[in-house]
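ok so dumb question maybe but i'm new to this and my supervisor (M.) told me to 'just get the structure for Porin' and walked off. so i did the thing. is this what she meant?? sequence i used:
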Amino acid sequence: MKLVKSLLLGSAAGLIAVGGAQAADLPVKAKAVEYVKICSLYGAGFYYIPGTDTCIKLGGYLRAEVGLGTNSIYGIANGSPAGAHNRLSNYYTMRAREDLNIDTRTATEYGVVRTFFDATFSWTTGGFVATGSGTGGTQYTSGVALNAAGTGLVGGTTINPTDGGTSGGSLGVYYAFIQFAGFTMGKAVSQFDAPWTNYPGNNIDSLVGGSGTVTGVNQFTYTADFGQGVTAAFSAEDATAYYQAGNLNMTGATAAGILAGSYGTNAIGGSRSPNLVGMVRVDQAWGLFQASVAAHDNHVGYYGATELTGHPDDKWGWAVQLALSIKNIPTGAGDTINIQGVYTDGATRYNFQNLAGSSYQMFGSSGIAYQSVGFANAPDTVYVTGSSQETVKTWGFRGAYTHNWDPYWNTALYGAYAQAQFGTLAKTTLCGVGGVFVTGAALAGVTSCNPDFAIGQVGIITRWTPVKNLTFSADLNWTHLDQKYSGTVGPIGPSGTSAKPAAVYELKDQDSITLLLRAQRNW
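this is what came out, is it supposed to look like this??
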């Protein structure tokens, strides 16, 4: 009996133990999941970062495009070798690009604290850079843009010939700034720029006639908001990245260099002062009006190779710009006119903006010589050894009219014009009192010598948006170099990597036609 009782008690204890273990394994009620919440304080697309009171918005686009008639995606064929119009000139350049931007905002007792970051990841099929003649003497680069002279690519790297550069590409940081209590600190669009920067109605970057820092410029800015759509800003902006068109010592000018659009030795000195910018803007339902001014310090190095050669004093340049946008004009809902005009004196980049460039060497046909050539250069200042700096004056404008045919199609007509005017020192040094070149016998055929020039541009772009945020576009642009030289030069071989021989060239106006085709998906 005792044995039976012991077995029963043991079995009961075992069942109780097993039941307790199973109860411990049963699921318990979980804590509520903290889902990402919509932040409605700053518009659509913002969400709270979990566990914080900061709102974040992600955005960007993916773009595929091809540029025809240019040695880079957006630039006109105005330098070497693109302007050579020969077998070294690219007929097309292709690019794929992903853009990512991150916008964060936090409400504080001092107002909203905002950070904004925008970067691009690009793969470009290569700008052509001639490094010599014959087999193995040329290379393609994966850079993002040609330099001002058209002889190399800014930020370019040689594609690995063993794998075609499939692991290459480029990273571009467009914007990275903090905004707090009216201050903007970091890389952002210049306060001088019109709101449409380089794009009054088009895609191509290379329009003259105004400022345009589409990839941002480092700055420290204070913006005051007076209400009723009226704002004003004062800004100190980095001058070294985008705003130095050149300070040329013309003592170093050569005949071959002049034909390549170089009027001397560029002798920009170290950084001294940022550009000082002021802006007033009125935003209303009908559009906007903006007035901008800028001051630019032209600080050069020495006349020669050492400190003992001396140097010219600094020369301040300046620029002023007016911009006007008129919305919803009677031709159709959403139709817009954007126009701006600018005048500069010793601050050329506020007219011949960085992506347009200010140095030209373009070739074409001729009925009296081997070929024709057009060349020009618009620096900030010029001087000769022993002299002070002389500023170069420019003026220009650009604008566009955009018409919406229906919700899916729109077309923009756009144009731009800029003129550069040199002073007495430049004209006397380059052309002499009689108005003909004085730099060498090779230029004896010149019948009229004048470094002044103008750039005229017109274009049309049509966009089709079959579904929301997916747009296909075609942008056709014509650029005309109106140079003031006439006659012939030579026999001479122009400097640069254009493969042009020593021959007689006719001095003549030149043209460039480009077509930009693009597909873009915004998200």
